[in-house]
């Protein structure tokens, strides 16, 4: 199979084509072109497939439902250009988390047709601060290494969110890192010093930067201050509701490995109405998802929309925006074969027009049925 167009790479744009053989990119052929002219003349833009490490739901289904919910979620996000994702849990009783992970295990081992690759799990809770739950239910508890490793046996935990100020959590970061689990700081009421201590212990990043963490004050820098001063990686939700564009620009200047996630709920890709988020009922309206008291509760964002916000609202160059929704997350997870359009990489490809509207999606060389805007 050959895909022709303007190929977006981290270093610029190549006008040429990709050859795909057995689900992988066999060759990238073409010549550099000024990025300002990418997509001119109706040429399609070829971008690396989006990678989202924070996905609670989509298509009306929630990860915590177990059963076949993750299959629906992975199909829906693939239709919006996400070619690989981490299924993300909610804070809940351990028995509920175990049930969800048992359902996720088989899906992580084998990708279903017409679906994004489920790379593993982002365990967001229950090891968070009771004082910074955000939209998480009130089942926060301290973690133990044995418990985390037992959960990891059901489905591979790739990312674990913790509040470092919780008892014993700093001491767990090193052993978890050594086990291949990336520890992120989030849902934390901890101090700046707590954040620095967690980074020094091996914490890899921050979960949905700015949201559900102690804020920056000039005399009490908080967890946000620790992230901006010392963080190498952090997630950020660019739906323009969770974080003001000005704060996004601050984070882009401070954190080299800032990357985008959706924190999407069952409402993603669905009309306004009521949906489930763990044990909560949430309402989608006016582009956002909220609890009855107005608290933001995840999002209805999809990654194609995230890319458009980065380029059309924040003003990022297309190549940098593509990195933030794909390559940086791939590198963060240690995935050299994803997040880039390069020889030998998986043929995870998003095809867009000059207005960044989605036209085609390929996951590991399989074309996904997408809804193309007229």
TrEMBL record:
A single GO molecular-function term is: N-acetylglucosamine-6-phosphate deacetylase activity
Which positions make up the signal peptide? Answer: none
Q: Which residues cross the membrane?
A: none
Mention any Pfam family matching this sequence.
Amidohydro_1
Q: Looking at its record, which EC class is this enzyme?
A: hydrolase
Enzyme Commission numbers on file: 3.5.1.25
Amidohydrolase-related domain: which residues? 46-361
Which InterPro entries does the annotation name?
Answer: Amidohydro-rel (IPR006680), GlcNAc_6-P_deAcase (IPR003764), Metal-dep_hydrolase_composite (IPR011059), Metal_Hydrolase (IPR032466)
Q: State the UniProt keywords alphabetically.
A: Carbohydrate metabolism, Hydrolase, Metal-binding
Record's family?
A: Belongs to the metallo-dependent hydrolases superfamily. NagA family.
Q: What is this protein called?
A: N-acetylglucosamine-6-phosphate deacetylase
């Amino acid at each position: 199979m050959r895909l022709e167009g303007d190929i977006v790479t981290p270093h610029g744009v190549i006008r040429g084509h990709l050859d795909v053989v057995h689900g992988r990119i066999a060759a990238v052929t073409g010549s550099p072109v000024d990025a300002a002219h990418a997509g001119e003349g109706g040429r399609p833009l070829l971008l690396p497939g989006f990678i989202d490490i924070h996905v609670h739901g989509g298509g009306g289904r929630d990860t915590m439902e177990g059963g076949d919910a993750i299959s629906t979620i992975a199909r829906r996000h693939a239709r919006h250009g996400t070619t690989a994702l981490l299924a993300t849990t909610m804070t809940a009783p351990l028995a509920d988390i175990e049930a969800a992970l048992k359902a996720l295990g088989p899906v992580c081992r084998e990708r279903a047709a017409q679906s994004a690759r489920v790379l593993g799990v982002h365990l967001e809770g229950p090891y968070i601060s009771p004082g910074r739950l955000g939209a998480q239910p009130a089942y926060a508890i301290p973690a133990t290494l044995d418990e985390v490793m037992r959960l990891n046996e059901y489905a591979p935990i790739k990312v674990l969110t913790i509040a470092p100020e919780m008892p014993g959590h700093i001491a767990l970061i090193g052993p978890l890192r050594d086990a291949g689990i990336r520890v992120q700081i989030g849902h934390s009421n901890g101090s700046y010093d707590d954040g620095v201590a967690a980074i020094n212990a091996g914490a890899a990043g921050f979960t949905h930067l700015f949201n559900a963490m102690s804020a920056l004050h000039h005399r009490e820098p908080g967890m946000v201050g620790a992230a901006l001063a010392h963080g190498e990686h952090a997630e950020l939700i660019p739906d323009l509701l969770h974080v003001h564009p000005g704060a996004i620009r601050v984070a882009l200047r401070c954190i080299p490995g800032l990357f985008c996630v959706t924190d999407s709920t069952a409402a993603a890709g669905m009309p306004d109405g009521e949906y489930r988020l763990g044990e909560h009922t949430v309402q989608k309206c006016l582009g956002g998802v909220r609890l009855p008291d107005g608290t933001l509760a995840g999002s209805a964002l999809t990654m194609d929309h995230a890319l458009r916000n980065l380029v059309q609202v924040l003003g990022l160059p297309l190549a940098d925006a593509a990195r933030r929704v794909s390559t940086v997350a791939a590198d963060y997870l240690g995935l050299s074969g994803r997040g880039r359009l390069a020889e030998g990489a998986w043929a995870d490809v998003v095809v867009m027009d000059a207005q960044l509207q989605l036209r085609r999606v390929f996951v590991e060389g399989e074309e996904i049925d997408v809804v193309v805007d007229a």
